Write the structure tokens for this entry.
Amino acid sequence: MKDFYETSRLILRHFRMGDEQALYELLSDSDVNRFLPMFPLQSVEEAKDYLQTHYLDKYKNQDGYYYAICLKENDRPIGYIQISGDESHDFGYALRKELWHQGIVSEVALKMVEEFKTSDLPYITATHDVCNPHSGNVMKKIGMKYCYSYKEQWMPKNILVTFRMYQYHFKKDEDFIYLKYWNKYPHHIEKDI
């Protein structure tokens, strides 16, 4: 896949050294971080380490697909969108709080799905906390289908969370459901909650 994509308002590109301040501003915000599996970053130096281990090293190892979301007018990261390199092909995203509810994540998510239809990737999965329905709305908007819900003692925050798991098949004749979370966590249900 490419390391650069464009939509009408946005650029998706690889993160690079020099993005640590923007990454810090995103991931140090407690509201943005509320539904992320990490604690807020505490310093720009910590953001630099995060940039190296979570993005730059993964590019070198070709381990998944990780993009900075940037406004066209300044090419400065305002968020991220990614597909993990493991078997879950976990689809995740985050955006600066002041840009929420403007269709930005939906716009880049639709672009990613369109681009990956021609890839070898068989599917993507995504989960959202039931307390974060806006994230679930993005999943529905791009055509992901609800599969099941499960409860997890979420680390490192050590809180009990009910997640809804969605999946999108790039090959339309597939009916495979990714069951790792179903099998791992004993408290799960099929019905939509």
Remarks:
- Helices lie at 20-27, 30-33, 44-61, 104-116, 133-141, 180-184.
- The chain has a mean pLDDT of 95.
- The first strand starts at residue 4 and ends at 6.
- The CA atoms of residues 20 and 29 lie 14 Å apart.
